[in-house]
Amino acid sequence: MLEALVTAASKMQPALQLCGIGKTFVLKSGSVLNRRRTEVRAVRDMNLVLERNSIMGLVGESGSGKTTTGMMALRLIEPTSGQIRLEGEDITEYGHQEMKEARRRMQVVFQDSYSALSPMLTLRQIVAEPLLIHGAGGATERDALALEWLERVGLHRSFGSRYPHELSGGQRQRVAIARALILEPAVLIADEPTSALDVSVKAQIINLIQDLQNEMELSVLFISHDLSVVRSLTDRVAVMFNGRVVEEADTETIFSQARHHYTRSLLDAIPVMDPRARPRRHFMSREELEAKVVTLRASEMDGPARPSGERRLVKISKSHKVEARVAA
Amino acid sequence: MLGYALRRLVSVSVTFFVVSIIIFLMMHSIPGGPFDAGEMPLTQEVRQRMMAQYGLDQPLYVQYLNYMWGAIRLDFGVPFQSPGETVAGLIGRAWIPSLVLGGLGVLVGTPLGMLLGMAAALRRNTWIDYLASAVATLGLTVPVFVTSMLLILLFSVWLNWLPSSGWGEPKRWILPIIAYATIPLATYARYTRAAMLDTLSKPFVTVLRAKGLSERRIVFQHVLRNSAIPLVTVFFPMFLGTATGSIFVEAIFRVPGLGSFFVSSIETRDYPLEMALMLILAILFALAYLLSDILYAWLNPRIRFGGGSE
Amino acid sequence: MSGPGPAAAPGTPSVQSGPAGRAHGPLWHAWRRLAANRAALAGGGAVAAIAVLAIIAPLIFPTGPTDQAYLQEALAFPSREHPFGIDDLGRDFLTRTVYGARVSLSIGFIAAAFSVIIGIPLGAAAGYYGGATDWFIMRLIEIFSVLPPLLAALLLGAVVGGGFWMIVFIAALFGWVQVCLLVRAQVKAFKSKEFVRAAVALGASPTYVVFRHLIPNSVSPIIVGFVLAIPLAMMLEASLSFLGVGVPPPTPSWGQMISVGLNFMYFYWHLAVFPTIALAATVLATSLFGDGLRDALDPTIEGRRA
């Protein structure tokens, strides 16, 4: 798998690759005398490729490890295993200075726009912050660029001297996007940027991200639990369940030919307006879903595959992977 | 819960140990020992014999260990100012007025303060609310000795109603008790008001009102018990404030209690008495600190609190 | 400058039009809330008036605070020429009372400043680094909580013999705890906020994060800690001076004047009354101002009349 990735990327490296990364959190509880150590494997052995100039959706329920994955890609959470490659460059072991350089090329927008902007700074200061940290340009130049970017995300220049508490959630999220993109990064990690917004505002922000992605040829990792948003925005989708990817395919394939039970149950949960068109839903608990393993015959695979009782992520077509057990 | 309590106990014990060393060292660096030349005209020989008798010629850590070993057995030595009795005996005699007056002050002040705070919270922005705020702010900011002075000026000097000093017949107790009572009064007026207002703004109170419960039942059955936690935890800071205040109350009203001995022991550089009083107070403070921590942890998860009946 | 920059903003029109009126920061809103609080304004005004009076004292009084100019009239009651009377050593008592404000206010402000200077770095370190640093600083605070402040101050005062700077030192020694706890709580709360994580994701160093984000966002607790430390230091000074280990005579200090007044109280009431009222009024005014500031700076806490 790993070798295959490296050779495939010989000509042009993908924007972001996560190679077998995992995160285990250690929780300590109990008293001094009988201290318990509980290990929680939030993400295990995960592989993900974000192609250049594309939007990839990372979906799954809360607790599935999708945010942890995004934070690990940014090294805001240090992975316990695996590699992070940014434009082909292994940044996993980078020290502060090297990492600082790498961070110019990879930025983030968070879910909670209320706590994403410092209440003590004006919007122009907030948007100019990346330039300040990276020592780019003089003060007037930074300020001018910040105002330009405010306009670019659809806010009038006069917002520059406002403070975050005077804005609506959607406006704040625009500011956060401007801050993330002012350094013109190659990769943007968007961690549920629309899930705290009203429906109408949500659409505006989605459009903004789409427009900017087009203009700047950005590679976006879009983390979300909202499948309707993911469907309208992304090119590819990876589905996470209990800390691992269980299915990955082009967006349309996921929505029309999902194979994994968990993906199907997620699709079933999308609200449908017409009650007669509503499918019969059968909700399953995590345990039930975990027990249901897809079994495939070797003939169903794309390329040669050895049969095994272990379930693993296997390729069933050129661009469709699903977690399954391979029967002989 | 037990684990937490034990952990706090260990931590506070270590703190107390450090504090006892600090106190001991401070004590020994007070300039001018009790037998310095000039203070008392003693010959060199007599001085050395006296130093040896009180163990003042040994290295510091030996003196410290000796002292702490004695302290555990309640042997604090002999006070310099009255060699006829022991420090333990003197303290045993002096704590009674402190406890009686201070205790009565707390007993009077606490319920009055709570009533005032409750009235203020229930009658918000009326004269009683402003009165409670004024009393709370005055009581918590104006030093006790200023309150005591004003009390004496008013009731003894100008009105001539009450005696300004002493311990003895109960009439003499009134002013010191009022002076003591200002501290719990102010503390509880402020915190009861805050806690009640906080509870009254909770959604469950709105639900109770929507259910049509009478205001009286809401206040007495629900709001009061839910406001109790902050009031329990504030007891200890209040207690500490009262204990410190006793120095001034007793100095001004000339009550022969622990506080006035504390002052006189500093003035006369009476090491043994001074050290014993500081240690006792530090232990008291450490215990209060520990208890308030444990109580807070015990009450806060709301597992036991009101769980059975509601 | 890296890259070409977003040259001309293409496509996206300005969908959000400019807001009307001036922009106002969080501190401006706090100021508005403070201005609406009459008790706090009165307190602040009173403190300012007392401070001005203390500063211009040499211009309004013919004699200095230690001049025994009226020995013939020692212990005289208040009169037209001497509104507060004459003290036992023949000094004009109004002069001394006003000069007493100098000692009280300067000790209050200087000690509070030192409390903040000690408290900010320790609180920021404890809140930001957590772990062993936090544990150590919290144990230090515990020691100061178990040590009765006034009694320890009394002892320290006795050890080093009082004096202006010694009182400042003692007050700061016990005053920093409050500031430290306030800053620690604030830094802890803001450390995990997403704008801090965003700065880290931009490659900001811990120093940058602390100075650009965490300390500016702790400005409210720092101001509150500073103002509330003032009356505490003033009370400590008065208490120590009252017990004779504070500012040494003849420098006028209210605590010391009250202590003298106590001896003359039955016959010459003015010696006790004026410094008592001056001290009570100053401490009260400062506290009212501090409480108002706290309410204004933290609109979420109780006590704000919404």
Describe the fold and architecture:
The complex is a heterotrimer of chains A (328), B (310) and C (306). With 328 residues, chain A is α/β, with parallel strands linked by helices. Chain A contains 11 helices and 13 strands. In chain A, strands 3, 6, 7, 8, 9, 10, 11, 12 and 13 form a 9-stranded mixed sheet that branches. Chain A has a 4-stranded antiparallel sheet with strand order 2-1-4-5. In chain A, helix 4 packs across helix 5 and helix 5 (139-152) packs across helix 6 (169-181). Chain B has helices at 2-28, 44-53, 60-72, 87-122, 127-141, 144-158, 174-200, 203-210, 215-226, 228-233, 235-253, 258-267, 271-299. Chain B has 310 residues and is mainly alpha-helical. Chain B is 73% helix and 0% strand. The model of chain B is unreliable at 302-310 (pLDDT under 50). Chain B contains 13 helices and no strands. Chain C has one domain (36-301): Orthogonal Bundle (MetI-like fold), CATH 1.10.3720. Chain C has helices spanning 26-35, 38-60, 93-129, 131-146, 149-160, 164-191, 194-201, 206-214, 219-242, 254-264, 270-297. In chain C, helix 6 packs antiparallel against helix 9 and helix 9 (219-242) runs parallel beside helix 10. Chains A and B meet through loops of A and helix 1 of B.
Key descriptive features of the protein:
heterotrimer; B: mainly alpha; flat; disordered C terminus; C: 306 residues; MetI-like fold; 11 helices; 67% helix; elongated
